């Protein structure tokens, strides 16, 4: 009689699955390595081992970029479902769950914090997070409040976890292959997208470029940087953004850098309020681990 187990597929190396899932989510071996406290080389080797075990290619690899293949996207659905089941089962065994309320600016929450929360939850599986946008108002008293403060002097932001450097960006739909030859002055001949009425970021950028802020191609003003980034991606004009908030768009080519050597500091994100204790203090310390050296 045929042994039914002989036709059962051999399981891949299970320890490689978190690396595959996180690399797919972040689109970066470096970010995956930071979440798992490994080196990018170790993450690359784990994914290669998984691909060899499966006999399929899971990622397309480019210069400092990775993207899922069709097989990778299909497999990711099953891997994420399996990891979620294990995670839920683990959480159910924990006797004491705690809640942490975090208030943060909406763009930071969506574009910087959410992609990194998986790392925090891996280290703190008994914490239930409640993320609230400062723009929409608070429904709970926050344990952690992240605020944004303007400024051009890095020395003023010794306690900040994320410096806000601004760069000029646009959609490739707007200027195509001429991006590398654009001069700072030539940018002002194109429509300019502002994320504040006083054009703070653009004025700082122009000062760093040693030119006057005189937009000759018109301008569109938005009340949030999130809206300005969205408008920039549709090709409405030249925008300003922090590279930390548009990592995915730059990596995937939805936005391109213009005059990349001009990147002045325009502010920083930092924790507000009195000195926290307990869980809030731990979260603040975790935020600081992401600060670039």
UniProtKB/TrEMBL annotation:
Residue stretches making up the HTH lysR-type domain: 12-69
Keyword Thylakoid: no
Keyword terms, alphabetized: DNA-binding, Transcription, Transcription regulation
Protein's UniProt keywords contain DNA-binding: yes
PANTHER family registered for this protein in UniProt: HTH-TYPE TRANSCRIPTIONAL ACTIVATOR TTDR-RELATED, HTH-TYPE TRANSCRIPTIONAL REGULATOR
Family statement: Belongs to the LysR transcriptional regulatory family.
Entry protein name: LysR family transcriptional regulator
């Amino acid at each position: 009689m045929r042994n039914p187990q002989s036709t059962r597929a051999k399981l891949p190396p299970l320890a490689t699955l978190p690396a595959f899932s996180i690399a797919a989510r972040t689109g970066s071996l470096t970010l995956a390595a930071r979440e798992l406290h490994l080196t990018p080389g170790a993450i690359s080797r784990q994914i290669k081992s998984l691909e060899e075990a499966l006999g399929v290619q899971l990622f397309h690899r480019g210069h400092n970029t990775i993207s899922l293949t069709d097989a990778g996207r299909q497999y990711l659905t099953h891997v994420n479902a399996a990891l979620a089941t294990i995670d839920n089962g683990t959480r159910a065994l924990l006797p004491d769950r705690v809640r942490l309320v975090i208030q943060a600016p909406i763009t930071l929450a969506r574009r910087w914090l959410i992609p990194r929360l998986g790392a925090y939850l891996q280290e703190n599986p008994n914490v239930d997070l409640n993320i609230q946008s400062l723009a929409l108002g608070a429904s709970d008293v926050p344990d952690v409040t992240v605020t944004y403060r303007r400024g051009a002097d890095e020395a003023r932001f010794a306690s900040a976890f994320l410096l806000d450097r601004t760069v000029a960006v646009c959609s490739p739909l707007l200027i195509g292959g001429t991006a590398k030859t654009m001069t700072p002055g030539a940018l002002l001949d194109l429509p300019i997208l502002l994320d504040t009425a006083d054009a703070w970021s653009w004025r700082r950028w122009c000062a760093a470029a040693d030119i006057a802020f005189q937009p000759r191609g018109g301008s569109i003003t938005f009340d949030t940087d999130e809206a300005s980034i969205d408008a920039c991606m549709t090709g409405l004009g030249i925008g300003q953004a922090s590279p930390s908030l548009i990592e995915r768009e730059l990596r995937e080519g939805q936005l391109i850098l213009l005059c990349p050597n001009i990147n002045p500091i325009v502010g920083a994100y930092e924790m507000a309020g009195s000195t926290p204790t307990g869980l809030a203090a731990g979260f603040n310390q975790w935020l600081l681990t992401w600060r670039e050296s």
